[in-house]
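Researcher: Please predict.
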Amino acid sequence: MTTTPAPTTPVLPAAHDTRCPFSPPPAYTDAARTGSVTRAALPDGTPIWLVTGYAEVRTVLADQRFSADARHPTFPLFTPDRRELIAENPAFIRLDDPEHARLRRMVTGDFLVKRVEAMRPEIQRIVDDALDRMTDGATEADLVSAFALPVPSLVICLLLGVPYEDREMFQALSATLLNTFAPKEEIARASDEILDYLGGLAAHKKEHPAEDILSRLAARDDLTLREIASTGVLLLIAGHETTANMIGLSTVLLLRQPEQVAKLADPAAVPGAVEELLRHTTIVHTGLPRVAVEDVELDGTLIRAGDGVFAMLSTANRDEAMFGGADRSSPDEVDLDRDARRHLAFGFGVHQCLGQPLARAELQIALATLFRRLPGLRLAVPESELRFRSENVIYGLRSLPVTW
């Protein structure tokens, strides 16, 4: 049974403020002002808890009393239709230990810091090649389609063993799967297509292995082709969608403040700058869903077993108690000198993003190289004309017209 939320109860997902599209939706920030744990509702009226404070979000993501298993009957999802699809082919981020740990361990080695550091020359080559193509005989381009999307797409394709020439197909399917409001039939079709595609690749690599993740997974005897495909979907989508959107959003934020761009000229300052951009943008604006499997008291509020919870990374990363203070700039501002290393853009706890070392390396190389090679980079349209992918779980720009 569902209930109609009170007029003051925020409904997820909430609309962004077009006047400040880089900030969390006002409904979330308003909730954060009233307390770190507040009532909210899903589109069908199902009540949930909105957890907005930094400390409380960390608790939810680290405490085993909050489950990530999307097969739980009251796990909070924006549309009930998604539960059936996820239950059929759950990726490991939608499972709890020990199932989660078993599947995650199989790919952890591919994203270790040491492995990613060894990839930096290859990532640099990919970034340079993309910029060469974008600037060849041209003085303007769509930075999303010409640079932000191709760079992480090619990197994750090389790692997984997915043919880069198939990128238009998997990028389109990814967009459907990430669309909060896509009809059930479209989601089911996109899910089947991409699972069949990666399952077919895995079957081929079982007979014709190469040096890539899908080949290694296909060589195992303890995985089905469907499990391999589900893991592949997660890595493929997360591996290109997140970084692509971060590159686009970060570029606009930096173009707003030329004095900040100058800091990227110092290689030692680039890693810290990227952490601040990750904190400020936090592209998963809708938060991470969990379900309480026991009664839990959180900041004085009793969350009952079976209650759905959304851990709001975006508001946690703007928490004044953590990232503000009298001697620091406001958390709502971009300050590349801020120590933002404890941000939650990659989540927290055992489910935190597996690919964060790779994302960091890609962002550091892509942004530093972009502004070094194109010092005259600027928007080709007024910022008010930019259009954002607010319907997606991963927030970003539809396009980014630039000139130089």
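Model: The chain has 16 helices and ten strands.
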